[in-house]
UniProtKB/TrEMBL annotation:
Source domain of life: Bacteria
PANTHER family recorded: CHROMATE REDUCTASE (PTHR30543), NAD(P)H-DEPENDENT FMN REDUCTASE LOT6 (PTHR30543:SF21)
One cellular component (GO) term of this entry: cytosol
GO molecular function, one term: oxidoreductase activity
The protein's name in its UniProt record: NAD(P)H-dependent oxidoreductase
Family listed: Belongs to the azoreductase type 2 family.
Pfam families: FMN_red
Organism for this UniProt entry: Listeria weihenstephanensis
NADPH-dependent FMN reductase-like domain mapped to chain residues: 1-144
Length: 177
């Protein structure tokens, strides 16, 4: 399964980028995944008649993916502008997200993980007709205690839970192809 990974943080040492890289490496036998560059120009309808090259490349990768993994931080109780901008580009001109299966994960230093951001993200994606894996919420709280200095996810309970969610997503995808 070809999976486009959208990470809602541009920060070099982002826990969410580290989480995406962990998922990409650990499940390489199940998911042929690519972390897409979300450092795109701000969505502007005026650019739709002559899309910037990086937007064209981004949209093509999303369109050609079988599924999308959203990795979201939580900024001010919602998703980041970076992630929203990527979603806006992916949903315009050609509906690159419609009917596409996906799942959501997120990490935060706070105790609740990314609960509120993920609620908003699910609401946004629902309006696009995406098929998001239900009942498998990955809210990684206290992320700074769950990764080591090299970016390895060291919390065994979290790793085991993500193992089960990825397994559930593969089954969900197979049922909904």
């Amino acid at each position: 399964m070809k999976v486009a990974i959208l990470v809602g943080s541009l920060r070099k040492n982002s826990f969410n980028k580290t989480l995406a890289e962990f998922i990409q490496k650990r499940y390489a036998d199940k998911l042929d995944s690519e972390i897409l560059d979300l450092n795109l120009p701000l969505y502007n309808e005026d650019l739709e008649s002559d899309l910037p090259a990086d937007v064209v490349a981004f949209k093509e990768k999303v369109r050609n993916a079988d599924a999308v993994l959203f990795v979201t931080p939580e900024y001010n109780h919602s998703i980041s502008g970076v992630l929203k901008n990527g979603i806006d580009w992916a949903s315009r001109i050609t509906p690159d997200l419609t009917e596409k299966p996906g799942f959501i994960v997120g990490a935060s230093m706070g105790g609740l993980g990314t609960v509120r951001a993920q609620m908003h993200l699910r609401q946004i994606l629902d309006t696009m007709g995406m098929r998001i894996l239900p009942a498998n919420e990955v809210f990684i709280g206290a992320a700074h205690t769950k990764f080591d200095e090299n970016g390895a996810l060291i919390d065994e309970g979290t790793v085991a839970f993500i193992d089960s969610v990825v397994h559930n997503f593969v089954e969900f995808y197979d049922r909904n192809k």
